[in-house]
Amino acid sequence: MLIKIITCLIMFFVIFMGFKQGVALVGGKPESVAIFEKANLNPFWQMLFGAFTMAGAIFILHPQLYKSGNIIMAVSILIIIYLQLSFKEIKSAIIELPFLFLNLLLIYLQYPLAN
Hints:
Blueprint lengths: L1 H26 L2 H9 L4 H17 L6 H21 L3 H20 L6
Helix pairs in contact: 1-3, 1-5, 3-4, 4-5
Keywords: Membrane, Transmembrane, Transmembrane helix
Protein name: DoxX-like protein
């Protein structure tokens, strides 16, 4: 029972952070899109990546799409880490690692709101 509560808390934190990051990318917040601008990605791709991230966060809520949502979120974090490492921003890439591990932990712990 305690593990399900902890898993729920982690799940809602991941959903909140993913949705927040997606909204920031779609809205074009300067600190969120800076890495994409360095990579010369136009605003369309930034918005598409933000929508992709928000979709992954929403998918985590549904039991049938739980693993898919976590995988989408993990892939989006890996893409951000790749971009940061390609521009030698090691500190920023290391900051993203706990969020990646949370998604992988959620995949391991399974969907907490079922039975």
